[in-house]
């Protein structure tokens, strides 16, 4: 090699070294070998042998509170994270240094909150400097860490689902519209075509469930000392989805046939795309044309005036609800619009079993003196009518009620009827926490807002002072009212 070529090679090599040194000085990527990690301060799931990634960070979240609301919880963080199969620790990063490591032991538990059998999840009992815990298989997971109970929840997401009265299945727990798709570490997408969306509301939830219940006593309310419930649903708007019950239902204002796509990315989280592909089918059946009531000499008003039922859409099925006081003798029928154009009769046992009644059926004998929960519905646009009758009436439920629970009803006592007005009473201890009236120990027909003007699905009722109250609840065949007198 000539002297000129050797000199040229040295200059070329020097240029490469100088260039690489300059780039390294400006390169924002931190060498993992020097002990630093290139993520912001926070807590991250870290795969054994790897530095934590910004896509595996957990942030502060709310948990469930009374009346389907949300509340803050000290030290509660979570997120939706794609996890490769392997062993993980939860690490704390401060100034690009790992300052604490958390591990623990795992158990598999089940919460029957899903109607689609996605009930098993992993609980990690955490300790400082604990061993790494295993996650398998790879997938998108709902991950939370609760510092009050020292536990992590790791729950694999199978699919998103649309649910609400704007969707074909309504709010039915088992009839949500499940989207199909897949997910990788780079992101996921699930979609379905030809979905009919009506004017109304809907939400996105995962694995057919609203939450994971980690309360110590499922009927013991939402005090932080009783544990917590993790949200597994999204609300807000299609272009601004957020986690939790504190997010409003998504409003659907344009009916039509849609292709719905739900996307997730580790950088930007969840989003929904609605592609309108056609008009919605025309609805020929109008529930507003059917104002059902109960009438007969076994009821408060005899054969003169109906005891009106309350209409509500029940997961896409037109349904009417009410509580009727019957005497120990006499008969009754169900009819619409205070007229005899359509009336139902026949045999109706008071066992809660749904029975198809015949428009040509005869008078129905009283089931006996007492309160009865009546439900009328049609699943085929008035082709047939289904009715159930249950020997259970009005009750009071809620944290402020005598039961102290949103799951346990305190029955109201029937006090008979006079001049067409049915009356119920209850004397019990109340707190200043919220409560409501509901029928049939079910939320389909519940009343709130204000004692003097009770409304269906109204807000929670609250008394200004705790104490023993006499509650008087009345129904005149159309309107409900109540009083609360401190004893």
Pick out its properties:
40 strands; 487 residues; 1 helix; mainly beta; Immunoglobulin-like
In short:
The protein has 487 residues and is mainly beta. It has one helix and 40 strands.
Protein model, in words:
The protein is mainly β and 487 residues long. The protein has five domains: 3-30; 35-156, Immunoglobulin-like; 160-278, no CATH class; 287-390, Immunoglobulin-like; 394-486, Sandwich (Immunoglobulin-like). The chain has one helix and 40 strands. Strands 1-2-3-8-9-6-5-4 form an eight-stranded antiparallel barrel. A hairpin with a 4-residue loop joins β8 and β9 (151-156). The longest helix is centred in the first third of the chain and has 24 residues, at 3-26. The termini are far apart. Residues 1-34 have low confidence and may be disordered.
Overall body shape? globular
What spatial order of strands do you see in the largest sheet? 1-2-3-8-9-6-5-4
Total beta-strand segments: 40
Sheet bearing the most strands, described?
8 strands, antiparallel, barrel
Mean pLDDT: 88
Our estimate of the beta-strand percent is over 45%
Q: How much helix is in the residues? A: under 10%
Q: Which architecture of the largest domain per CATH?
A: Sandwich
Task: Specify the number of helices.
Answer: 1
- CATH topology label of the largest domain: Immunoglobulin-like
The CATH class assignment of the largest domain is Mainly Beta
């Amino acid at each position: 090699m000539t002297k000129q070529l050797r000199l040229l090679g040295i200059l070329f090599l020097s240029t490469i070294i100088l260039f690489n040194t300059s780039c390294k000085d400006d390169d924002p990527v931190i060498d993992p070998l020097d002990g630093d990690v290139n993520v912001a301060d926070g807590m991250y799931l870290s795969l054994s042998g790897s530095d934590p990634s910004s896509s595996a960070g957990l942030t502060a979240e709310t948990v469930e509170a009374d009346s389907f609301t949300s509340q803050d919880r000290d030290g509660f963080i979570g997120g939706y994270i794609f996890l490769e199969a392997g062993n993980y620790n939860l690490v704390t990063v401060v100034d690009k240094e790992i300052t604490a490591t958390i591990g623990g032991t795992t158990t598999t538990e089940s919460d029957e909150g899903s109607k689609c059998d996605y009930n098993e999840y992993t609980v990690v009992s955490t300790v400082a400097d604990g061993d790494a815990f295993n996650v398998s298989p790879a997938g998108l997971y709902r991950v939370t860490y609760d510092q009050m109970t020292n536990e992590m929840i790791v729950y694999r997401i199978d699919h998103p689902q649309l649910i609400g009265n704007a969707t074909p299945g309504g709010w039915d727990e088992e009839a949500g519209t499940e989207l199909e798709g897949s997910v990788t570490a780079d992101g996921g997408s699930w979609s379905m075509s030809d979905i009919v969306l009506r004017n109304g509301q809907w939400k996105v939830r995962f694995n057919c469930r609203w939450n994971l219940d980690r309360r110590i006593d499922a009927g013991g309310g939402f005090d932080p000392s009783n544990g917590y419930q993790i949200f597994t649903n999204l609300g807000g708007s299609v272009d601004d989805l957020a986690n939790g019950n504190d997010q409003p239902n998504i409003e659907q204002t344009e009916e039509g046939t849609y292709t719905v796509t739900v996307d997730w990315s580790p950088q930007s989280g969840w989003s929904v795309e609605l592609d309108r592909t056609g008009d919605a089918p025309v609805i020929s059946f109008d529930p507003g044309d059917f104002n059902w009531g109960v009438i007969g000499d076994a009821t408060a008003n005899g054969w003169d005036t109906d005891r009106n039922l309350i209409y509500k859409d029940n997961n896409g099925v037109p349904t009417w609800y009410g509580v009727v006081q019957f005497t120990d003798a006499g008969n009754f029928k169900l009819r619409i619009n205070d007229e005899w154009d359509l009336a139902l009769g026949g045999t109706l046992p008071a066992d809660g079993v749904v029975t198809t009644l015949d428009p040509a059926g005869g008078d129905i004998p009283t089931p006996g003196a007492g309160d009865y929960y009546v439900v009328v519905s049609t699943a085929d646009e008035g082709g047939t009518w289904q009715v159930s009758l249950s020997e259970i009436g009005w009750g009071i439920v809620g944290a402020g009620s005598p039961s102290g629970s949103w799951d346990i009803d305190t029955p109201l006592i029937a006090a008979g009827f006079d001049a067409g007005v049915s009356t119920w009473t209850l004397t019990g201890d109340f707190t200043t926490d919220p409560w409501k009236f509901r029928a049939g120990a079910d939320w389909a027909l519940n009343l709130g807002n204000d004692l003097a003007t009770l409304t269906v699905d109204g807000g929670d009722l609250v008394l200004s002072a705790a104490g023993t109250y006499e509650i008087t609840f009345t129904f005149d065949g159309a309107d409900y009212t109540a009083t609360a007198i401190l004893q």
